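ligand=NAP
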Amino acid sequence: VDSHPARRRTALVTGASRGIGRAIAAQLAADGYDLLLAARDVDALEDVAAQLRTDQNRVSVATANMADEAEVEALASAQLALAPHLDVLVLAAGAAMSGAIDSLPLRRLDTQLAVNLRAPFHLIQRLLPALRVAAGSSPTGAKVIAIASITGVVSETGLAGYGASKAALISLCETLSAEEGENGVSATALSPGFVDTDMTEWMRDRIDPAEMITVGDVAELTRALCRLSRYAVVPNIVLTRPGAQLWRA
Ligand SMILES: NC(=O)c1ccc[n+]([C@@H]2O[C@H](COP(=O)([O-])OP(=O)(O)OC[C@H]3O[C@@H](n4cnc5c(N)ncnc54)[C@H](OP(=O)(O)O)[C@@H]3O)[C@@H](O)[C@H]2O)c1
């Protein structure tokens, strides 16, 4: 609970146009956060913003391709222009491409590393001053929540590039908590198996989408994390699906 109710709580959500990021943005809006929503598709972003805007909160949008350094930089600047403090940074934009190690085009590896690791690193670096400001006046501190993947925890054939990028993202979250925890800034990776979104459309003939993890499950955990005191640091949460084999997507 914020002991400074006069200060508006702010959050930046990447990948907010669809899927997990959109569900998290809706949860944060319901909890009264001012939001900056980012993705590439401006029409989709405007639709989400129109749905989440209320009399109580402000919702802005910014388009940014996370594979483009200049656009990531511009997104960070847009956030800093909105408020000097940032309570929650949700990193949900992600690129997933499959391919065995013997044949994955290196270009695809580069794209996944850019979107899933480099852009999160860049945003965290530029927004840390604002996260520290928020943490300085809130008992919950400031939170970075990165949507990683169970594939970043245990390997999955055909997902070497994606899994490596997500393992690196999990490591980035750990080091951020280690470096900034005493300033009240901590990071959590959320590492789900298959979640029913556009990203898992190709799996629908093998796994019934009704039996996948829901975007609401991930949003619910995000909400809980945002309410934890600054003294509870949570490095990584794995969400897996029911079944005898827990350690698979
Ligand atoms: N679905 C799963 O099973 C699953 C499991 C584990 C982890 N994840 C992770 O969860 C996160 C969200 O995925 P999702 O399942 O919600 O997928 P989704 O429905 O396909 O949404 C992906 C989001 O990321 C944005 N995005 C994609 N590439 C981008 C780029 N180059 N620049 C900026 N934004 C980009 C998309 O917006 P635009 O297209 O408008 O840019 C969209 O908002 C990802 O990091 C993903 O790796 C998903």
